[in-house]
Amino acid sequence: MAGYRSNTSGEVSATEAAGRYWASTIVGTSAHRLYVVDGQVSATSSFSRGIGYSVRCIKDESIYVGSVSLDKTTANIEKTDSLQLTATVLPANATNKNLSWSSSDESVATVDNTGKVSALQVGTTIITATTEDGGYTAECEVTVFVVGVESIDISHTTLELEKGEKDTLRVIILPENAYNKTVTWESLDESVATVDDNGNVTAISVGTTTITAITEDGGHTAECELTVVNITVKG
């Protein structure tokens, strides 16, 4: 490693930038030399060694990175879930194994400085690990998905209520881990019975109507045939 070492303070400067390499043959106070500066080398003869500078050679004992890899090259994760990626830097005894992490689309998923990926919305992004030493890279294609609704069932397929009576219908949505379980409720004839957003049914007048639950995801439906009768007079 080239550089100047002061003949007064002993401090080294201009390392890896400039320096003088002296030949062993000395003529008086002069000697042949190689002068190194900014990557250019020139030979000079009969130059005074009393200039006050000398070359200091420093042995570089660093072990440099040769490659990096990830434990996964592709991965699928559910929206709002997370995934831990593990990077392997070789050789194992490399001096500088520092990494930086990045996501090609942070609206889909982000990654922290430990390789933990957090899914945000449906889509695909590339997670990249880059070594500080050498700039080697490894990638994992991450796809974020949601579990869709496959079916809906209702607690009653038929129901009879007296005028003015109330009851609650409930639904079962499958699979259980479906991401969007939002349901809307409708009554075919609201003059007979109404239903609110929570499946609460109110009988209004004598007649029949169909109460329908509809999933927001996929538009799956389940129905209950409702009959409203007059109030029974107990005597």
Short description:
The protein is mainly β and 235 residues long.
Distance between the termini: 111 Å
The CATH architecture of the domain at 67-145 can be given as Sandwich
Number of helices: 0
Radius of gyration from the CA trace?
Answer: 39 Å
What's the shape?
rod-shaped
Overall pLDDT: 85
Strand order in the sheet with the most strands: 8-15-14-11
β content, as a range?
Answer: over 45%
Structural class: mainly beta
For the record, what CATH class of the domain at 67-145 applies? Answer: Mainly Beta
Would you tell me which CATH topology of the domain at 67-145 applies?
Immunoglobulin-like
Question: How many strands in all?
Answer: 24
Which H/E pattern describes the elements?
Answer: EEEEEEEEEEEEEEEEEEEEEEEE
pLDDT under 50 segments (min length 5)? Answer: 22-28, 47-56
Largest sheet: 4 strands, mixed
Helical fraction: under 10%
Care to describe what's here?
With 235 residues, the protein is mainly beta. Among the domains are: 67-145, Immunoglobulin-like, CATH 2.60.40.1080; 151-229, Immunoglobulin-like (Sandwich). The protein is 0% helix and 54% strand. It contains no helices and 24 strands. It has strands at 4-6, 12-13, 18-27, 30-37, 40-48, 53-54, 67-70, 74-78, 82-84, 87-90, 99-103, 109-111, 116-119, 123-131, 137-145, 151-154, 158-162, 166-168, 171-174, 183-187, 193-195, 200-203, 207-215, 221-229. A hairpin with a 5-residue loop joins strand 1 (4-6) and strand 2 (12-13).
